[in-house]
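This section describes the prediction task in plain terms. A model, or a person checking by hand, is given the sequence of a single protein chain and must write out its three-dimensional structure as a string of tokens. No templates, partner chains or ligands are provided. The sample shown here is typical of the held-out split.
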Amino acid sequence: MMNRALRHTDTVWSRCNHSLRMSVVMLISLILLALGFAGAEECTMYAAVGRNKVIDHGLELLGQSFHLRWSHDDKIVYDTRKNTKPKPQTTPNGSLLLTNLQLNNTGPYQVTIYDNAGKLMLEKTTHLCVLLPVSKPRLTHTCTDASVSLRCDVGNSVDVNVVWSRNRQTLTGSTDKTLTITKAMLKSVDLYMCTVSNKASEEKSDDVNPECAEDSSSTVLLFGMKLWLMVAILAGGGSLLLILFVITLVCVCQSRRRRASRIKEEEEMRLAPLTQPTRQASLHHHHHPHKSQSRTRPKNRTQSQDTQNSRPVPRPRSPQPKPDDAPPIPIPRRTGPWNHRN
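The expected answer:
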């Protein structure tokens, strides 16, 4: 019986320990979750490293007498009735001006304002979070067969928001670092820009006109050259060959004409001696009366000359017929009519 009781006690104790452990784990989880939500909501103002920031208390105190005190992490950094070093700057209204912020300036800033009677006018806490500024983005583009991909390079910046714009107009729904545009929608006059920002700063890229050069992979090649270039070369060479062919044809035709004309002239020169006696006989028969008259006339002339000079005039000799076996005499071709001597 004693052993059973001890075993039952051990079982109950182990169950209690397990329940206690689970309760501790759940409590720690709730605490961490609460701290996480508190940290997420604790920043009420943001600023970038190296920038200036004004923390305003929200009251209009110009022309009034008051006691103002600013503190950072429960440490007084400004007091109108105390000499704090280094003493930060304030605006005429009493707002705190922080210059050249650094990461260690993060934390709560509490302002306390009293009137001259020592009555509390305002007590306010502002939690400032100093973040690294975003760098200026660099916009690049990559061309594919059917689209263009624009990429906004933000460098080492984290937790940034990206906004795309075309021709200074925001493109809704485009918040990724990469923007894809089809070539059908792409226009040569469009300018694209991306804007990156966090809770403390904002930067814009330069305007980019994404022009795509002709892709060599999609270009049709012929003998290792572009098709349009080869077509232009072949067209130019074909035109040149056609011109040379026409010139050669004209020269050949003119040469054949000259040769035919020369052959015809040589043939006429060979046939000229055969037709010469017939022409002379016809001419002799045609001019016979004139010769008889010329024969009678010289008698009168001879008598008159005998009476005047007493010198005989020789009688003209008749042309001697040429033998048929005489060699032909070349006679040049005459284009005009024959001229006969009387």
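For orientation: Residues 227-286 form the longest helix (60 residues).
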